[in-house]
Write a structure and sequence with these properties.
Blueprint: H1 2-8, H2 15-21, H3 25-30, H4 38-59, H5 64-74, H6 77-87, H7 97-101, H8 108-126, H9 128-143, H10 154-165, E1 169-177, E2 184-191, E3 194-201, H11 204-219
Antiparallel strand pairs: 1-2, 2-3
Helix pairs in contact: 2-8, 4-5, 4-8, 4-9, 6-8, 8-9, 10-11
Length: 223
């Protein structure tokens, strides 16, 4: 991992934290280890949220609603996957044999999660200041490039339409399948009790966004 640490300009103290950050549950179960990356991912997600929110507050003059949308765009699965790919994180990811055959080291959801776990490991190992500097070095070049957009908030666009038309809006989880480390969620979105879109994703949020996108496409609304 020396190459990665040099790229991030960090000097780790506890290397075991970083191995955990790159260890998928399938690898941990296969090798009878104690921890996978999920707890560090949880922490890293929160640190990312705080750092990006703080940056937007200090450097942008948008209102709360707009800052929330921008933050969501740069701390989402698509964005995290892009950051991780640019850093070449896939070659460090540890997965079990079955997951390896399924291309687990390159699955979007896993790669994106690993990026958050890595940020969580940096925070625990080197403190908030270093984690903040590392995240800003990675994220700001994307955030300040007007030609880059990772994500459209389809749910907000659909909500605005529904409010304007005074209609009811409801998201229903209709199917949850797969093992804990590789879940698939299917969500329906209903407008006035009529299904307008069905979305499938690796999280309920992702499935809801996909369902909202399909509903907007059906309604021919500009997103």
């Amino acid at each position: 991992m020396e190459e990665l640490f040099n790229k991030l300009a960090i000097n780790p103290k506890d290397i075991s934290l970083y191995k955990t950050a790159f260890s998928h549950s399938s690898y941990v179960n296969e090798h009878k280890l104690k921890n996978d990356y999920e707890r560090l991912e949880f922490l890293g997600d929160a640190v990312l949220d705080l750092v990006v929110a703080d940056y937007l507050y200090l450097h942008h003059k948008d209102d709360e609603g707009e800052m929330t949308k921008v933050r969501a765009s740069y701390v989402c699965e698509n964005a995290n996957y892009c950051y991780a790919t640019a850093l070449g994180l896939s070659k460090y990811i540890l997965v079990g044999h079955g997951e390896q055959k399924d291309g687990g080291k390159f699955k979007k959801a896993i790669v994106a999660d690993i990026f958050e776990a890595l940020m969580g490991a940096i925070y625990i190992d080197l403190g908030y200041s270093t984690a903040r500097k590392t995240i800003l070095n990675i994220v700001v070049p994307y955030l300040e490039n007007p030609d880059i957009s990772f994500f459209s908030d389809y749910k907000s666009s659909l909500q605005e339409f529904v409010q304007t038309e005074q209609k009811s809006l409801e998201y229903l989880l209709v199917l949850e399948e797969g093992p804990a480390h590789d879940k698939r969620f299917t969500v329906e979105v209903k407008i006035d009790n009529i299904v307008y879109g069905v979305g499938i994703g690796t999280s309920k949020k992702e499935a809801e966004q996909e369902a909202a996108k399909k509903a907007l496409d059906k309604l021919a609304i500009k997103k």
